[in-house]
């Protein structure tokens, strides 16, 4: 195993921690908001899905960096 494999593993591992925590907190707060105000569920769900997509984009950037480290 060469050093680039280790560097790629660390890059994607560290890069996935933030979005994972963020998505967990975001979903938990959205479920809490829906529980408190069920009639606002469609608006909350739309905003939650959009925010999750933005958070997931950060993990995709980490994946791209890991692939660049591995293959370049």
UniProtKB/TrEMBL annotation:
Pfam families: ATP-synt_C. The record marks 56 as: Reversibly protonated during proton transport. This is ATP synthase subunit c. One of its GO terms (cellular component) is plasma membrane. Its main location: membrane. The keyword Lyase does not apply. It comes from Candidatus Taylorbacteria bacterium RIFCSPHIGHO2_02_FULL_45_35. It comes from the Bacteria.
């Amino acid at each position: 195993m060469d050093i680039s494999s280790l560097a790629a593993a660390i890059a994607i591992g560290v890069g996935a921690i933030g979005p994972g925590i963020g998505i967990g907190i975001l979903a938990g707060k959205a479920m809490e908001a829906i529980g408190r105000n069920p009639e606002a569920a469609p608006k909350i769900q739309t905003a939650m899905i959009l925010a999750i997509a933005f958070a997931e984009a950060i993990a995709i950037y980490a994946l791209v960096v890991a692939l660049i480290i591995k293959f370049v």
